[in-house]
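User: Structure with FE2/S2 (inorganic) cluster, tokens only please.
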Amino acid sequence: MSDFVLKVNGARLHVSAPAEESLLSVLRDRLDLTGTKYGCGEGQCAACTVLLDGKPARSCLTPVSVAAKTHITTIEGLEQNGKLSPVQQAFLNEGAFQCGYCTSGMVLCATALLREIPHPTEQQIVTYMDGNICRCGTYPRIVAAVQRASQSPAKVGAQ
Ligand code: FES
Ligand code: FES
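Assistant:
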């Protein structure tokens, strides 16, 4: 076991874990941040997406020792002062989920996209989020939600 101080959603969290343990396991099983979902566990679905220094990353493939060198944002960190982020709100308004299992990964990926490209075309949205799998097939609503968020006057936030 090694000791780490993880910078998660603006807080510094102390955790002991094997250096090679996945960030996904550490978040869910040691820090009780269960908004990040375990889908395939092998990099194929992006349900486990978090932001590392603002960039989408698959937490199932990221050792905690690597994540410890970055600023980590999980779905729990998007809400500010009890208010959903523009992307979260847009997903809600568009009903962009059925089971919701892919949603936190989708929302984080879309957040990173809109910080990079504030007003993406439909094709840019599809290309950027290509690796995020929705088994329920709600892709049209997800694209609509990202478009809606891109028109929001509120700033798309993420640490
Ligand atoms: S759980 Fe990480 S990519 Fe599927
Ligand atoms: S809403 Fe069920 S996997 Fe996307």
